[in-house]
Amino acid sequence: MAEKAVQQTTGIPFLHELKRGVWLENPVFRQILGTCPTLAVTNTVKNSLGIGLATSFVLITSSLIVSLIRKLVPGQVRIATFTVIIAAFVTIADQFLAAMFPAISKSLGPFVPLIVVNCIILGRHEAFASKNPVKASLVDAIVMSCGFITTVVCLGIVRELLGSGSILGIQILGEWFKPWVVMILPAGAFLSLGIGLGLMNHLARKKA
């Protein structure tokens, strides 16, 4: 998959690469990665956007560093090295949210520090950034980030809309609507993710 992605990244327009990240190799719906934050903090659009942007920042910046030093790191310590790099950028993201957006930081709780063990990030480093030049690695990180943000925001929209009748605090559904409280609970997260996975698989099979 990594070799195929290299060819796409270096020789095909960015829009095609974006399709790869958002649809063909979507990290959540196609690769089933990063499900912990996807299930835990997508009860509102604001939280979804917060975790999506924080994860994307860490993925893009750490992929840049991993690609730059890929020939200097011995294979025996590559995972430990990747983890230290990821942890450094997670700390930056966590402190930035705490300083600039304390409400979002409090809502996300421990899930920002847990980006350190997000399978999406370590997986892209192991499969792509550690084997490819900077430009290709950056494009791969950006399109995968777009795929992750798209997924969590879509789930956040569905859960917040059905769970409270509003999006970003703006009331969308009228007084006639009775909120589905289950949608903002853990059960609603599993239900939304399951329906999303089923829909993606159905559309993929139909297109094929």
In short:
By secondary structure, the chain is mostly helical. It has a domain of 143 residues. It is built from 9 helices and 2 strands.
Give an account of the 3D structure.
This protein has helices at 2-11, 14-24, 35-40, 45-68, 78-100, 102-108, 119-127, 134-164, 186-207; strands spanning 166-167, 170-171. It is mostly helical. It has a domain at 2-26 and 38-155. It has a two-stranded antiparallel sheet with strand order 1-2. A hairpin with a 2-residue loop joins strand 1 (166-167) and strand 2. Helix 4 runs parallel beside helix 7 and helix 5 packs across helix 6. The longest helix is centred in the C-terminal third of the chain and has 31 residues, at 134-164. It is globular, with a radius of gyration of 18 Å. Residues 1-10 have low confidence and may be disordered.
Secondary-structure class: mainly alpha
By DSSP (H or I, 4+ residues per run), the number of helices equals 9
Low-confidence runs of at least 5 consecutive residues: 1-10
Strand line-up in the sheet with most strands: 1-2
Rounded mean pLDDT score: 91
Q: What is the total tally of β strands? A: 2
- Whole-number radius of gyration? 18 Å
Distance N terminus to C terminus?
A: 19 Å
Helix content: 55-70%
Order of helices and strands: HHHHHHHHEEH
The main sheet comes to: 2 strands, antiparallel
Shape: globular
- Percentage beta strand: under 5%
Which features characterize this protein?
single chain; 208 residues; mainly alpha; two-stranded antiparallel sheet; 2 strands; globular; disordered N terminus
